[in-house]
Amino acid sequence: MRFWRQFSFLVILGCALTIFSFACTNINRETTQTPQTATTQNSDKPAISSLPQQTQEIVKSKDDLFYPPRGDVRLVVISDLNSAYGSTDYDPEVDKTIDLLPFWKPDMVVCSGDMVAGQKTSLTEPQIKAMWAAFDDHVAAPLRQANIPFGFTIGNHDASGAKGEAGDFKFQQERDLASEYWNDPEHDPGVEFIDKNEFPFFYSFKYQDIFFMSWDASTHRLPPEKLAWVEKALASPEAQQAKMRILIGHLPLYAVAEGSRNKFGAVMANPEELRAIIEKYHDHTYISGHQHAYYAGHRGKLQLLHTGIIGSGPRQLIDSEITPFKAMTVLDINFDSPEVTTYTTYDMKTLELIKYEQFPRFLTGHNGIVLRRDVEYQDLKAEEKAACVSKLDEKLCGISE
Q: Residue 334: which of 323, 342, 324 has the closest Cα?
């Protein structure tokens, strides 16, 4: 009898330990699976002592600065770095972002445009060259020295594609000097080009199993011949054999910010046509800038990363009371994950994490709805759909999609 009591006790103890171990494992999964809500840190996080001095100082300024779990590929995504017209100065958040790169350890930095402060016909050649020299000092040179590739798109303040009545470029000098800067071998962005024929305006490149395409969305229309190039590039074996396809352009498909950004000309003129082409070739993400407001969204099958600004002039989101802020995103790609990409976005003044639930479930810009990344059409309540339709219409609200 004594033997059986001891045996029973051991069995019960073993079961209890098994249940406890299983519960701890699940808790650990829940806290590390999603950077949006995680409270534990990744073992890949660099030791502070291993970082450059300026990086150490920034990391120490924020208690327990979050380091996201690393994916198969890591991108740091930035946008709209510029200040006032003609400026060769950059806001502190630009330098702060570049100084933090050794902490995040990205495989590549991606920029969705507006690296300098042009788009003014009175700017002289020396002034434009001085802006690109300042950009090189603050951003491009540090990336080259760190051997970090830089994938970018041209913004309206870099080399606007706006045309006059005669069909010529209004800012031809700025376009010529931007091309001169980027085609100088000393300014090689370090990417593996696939098509460089019209670099830096229309080009494609790859990193590991990811196909990147950059189009000149510095204005709201793509000429027919350029749209044909886009479709040809996306249909190419290099694109279709890749595990993932990412498109970079300055203007977004749909508006997400108030005021002058929520109108014709501040977004692409034919978003549904463009989205249909992009989705046809299974492009996963469109990274854009220009709106000066961060919003992680999607429309149909296409993920839409509206990159936050790190330069001057953050803007208000549509129908939102959120105070405008400066943001950048660490984008981790996990090829075997259902979502493929994970965003870890920081307020670059405070280094606080920005979470999806802080934002409206959807935005209703003048040219169509954008759903928050974690919200699907079927998740919308009847009153939410009705509110969108009353402001737009069923088609622009995507009700039939």
A: 342
Please choose, from the candidates 92, 115, 229, the residue with its C-alpha nearest in 3D space to the C-alpha of residue 181.
115
d(CA 36, CA 342): 9
Q: 309 falls in which pLDDT band (50, 70, 90)?
A: very high
Domain boundaries, the chain: 51-363
The tokens of 382 are what?
């009847």
State yes or no: pLDDT of 373 exceeds 90: yes
In whole angstroms, how far apart are CA 267 and each of 221, 302, 393? 9, 16, 19
Q: Which pTM value belongs to this model?
A: 0.89
The residue with greater pLDDT, 242 or 42, is 242
Using alpha carbons only, give the angle 116, 117, 122 rounded to the nearest 5 degrees: 130
Cβ-count burial of 36 within 10 angstroms (0-12 exposed, 13-18 middle, 19+ buried)?
middle
Who contacts 202 (Cβ-Cβ below 8 Å, separation ≥6)?
195, 214, 215, 216, 226, 229, 230
CATH code of the domain occupying 51-363: 3.60.21.10
- 20-29, 92-101, 333-342, 344-353: segment of lowest average pLDDT: 20-29
Q: Which two tokens stand for residue 368?
A: 């169509």
Which of 56, 31, 57 is closest to 46 using CA atoms?
56
DSSP 62-107: STT---PPP-SEEEEEE-----STT-----HHHHHHHHTHHHH--S
pLDDT at 42: 62
CA angle at 308 for the pair 182 and 229, rounded to the nearest 5°: 45
Handedness of CA 300, 78, 42, 355 (dihedral sign): negative
CB 256 within 8 A of CB 271: no
pLDDT value of position 183: 98
